[in-house]
Amino acid sequence: MYVSCMATTTISINQEAYQTLSKLKGQGKSFSDVIIENLKPRPKTCGELLESLERDFIGARLFDPVRVKKVREGRGRRSNRSPRSR
Description:
mainly alpha, 4 helices, elongated
């Protein structure tokens, strides 16, 4: 017999936090799913943003593939623009 065993940790949250999580939790979702969905680290670069969008919207045609290729080819190079005066 196979038993799924996943490590768990118990946390304490106040009533307001619980109610907020409950509202976000849909049918078939766990509280862990809601927390992970809403607390992912934010992308620090445009490249990380592009990768996260592609990963989260697999199969969706959000971007023109030709432009995505150009962005990827341009990664790592420095801009010729002068810094803005502050």
